[in-house]
Amino acid sequence: MAQVSTPENILDFMVSLASPDLNGAVLEPGCGSAPFLRRVRDAFGSYKMEFFGVEIDREAASEAPDWVRLYTEDFLTWEPGVNFSLVIGNPPYGIVGSEEKYPIHSLLEKKAIYKSLFSTWKGKYNLYGAFVEKGVKLLRPKGMLIYVIPASWLVLDDFSLLRSFLARSGANDIYYLGEVFEGKKVSAVVLMHQKSAYPGKLRLWDVKVDDRGKLIPTLWLEKGDWGGEMVRFENDFTRELEGSGPSVGRVYEIRFAARSNEFKKNPEVRREQGPGLLPVLTGRNLKPEKIDYDTNYSGLWVSREVARGIREFYDHQRLVVGHTKGTKVVAAWDERAYPWREEFHLIPKEGWFPKPDDVVVYLNSDLVSRYVKTLYRDFVPHLTLRMLERIPLMESFFSSTPTRTRLDEEP
Question: Exactly one of 29, 35, 90, 263 is catalytic; which is it?
Fold first, then answer.
């Protein structure tokens, strides 16, 4: 059920952000033993406050204190008939799907119900996004939601509706924590949302940990007109670089390689080398400024004619940029125009004539690495399309005449 305990210093930090109505109701979704409610009660007392906990796992809820109004139900379909001054907690993280591919498969039969209930559900939505929307809806005006959740929602397209929803619903403070859950490769943030207060207001905080383990936030940027766009750690350096020339997305059409099953279901694709067959390359073949054409990591072979039918652009020399290399930009020029099973493939748009060598060297440079790391930290484990398309290029990288990129014969 994607249950992970919250470190003590994060519990303390999140409760320190809270300012609940002492006559109001406090809710912890996915409460387990109710660690957040315990902290809130210790910090603010219990005078006229009501404490609600919801937990779908009866065993996990067995240690909740008896002063909690406990509901052993699915929070996402639970209807309390109460609005809360504070919703606080650590919701489950994971995608609801089949057991073979996704962690939260026990709720698969409810997925259609969830999609009908939540306006922010999009793509491979993560369950924590639905917990955010539900929590905000249960707040009374000026009420506050405080969750510790993955940082991925800050940039991924699957959460664009959630970001817009939060921007419309009130003011948002985002505290970047990094990887704080022991043994988990998850970069986390604390989201503090105040309902109906200053819609469009966004404050982004960088958080450090002092020698005693206490979390110390520092304000990074503040916006009053946030509409749900990607949240980035912008500064003078990133803004200046983005003003130095056109973006990758303006210059290039960015395509993604065919998926593995597209090759495997094609009867013309072979598993043994033969005359006129090319290896299908993967991310392991891509190095900074270099492509390994000799090692066939995919185990798949295909003729140029068949490859062209799978993706038309396989017949063009092109810029290849790594999708599977973390958030570090790794790029090379595919001079042989081979078929690929992974990575981004960039074809210049009409009227643009970039110099391949200059662009490749630049994309692999420390300058671009610093730019990407500054903006996106470790929000997600890979370079996304939206990150790539916003990388700025230099004005000097362009010529007035095109370079031939289509191959007329076998390499």
Answer: 90
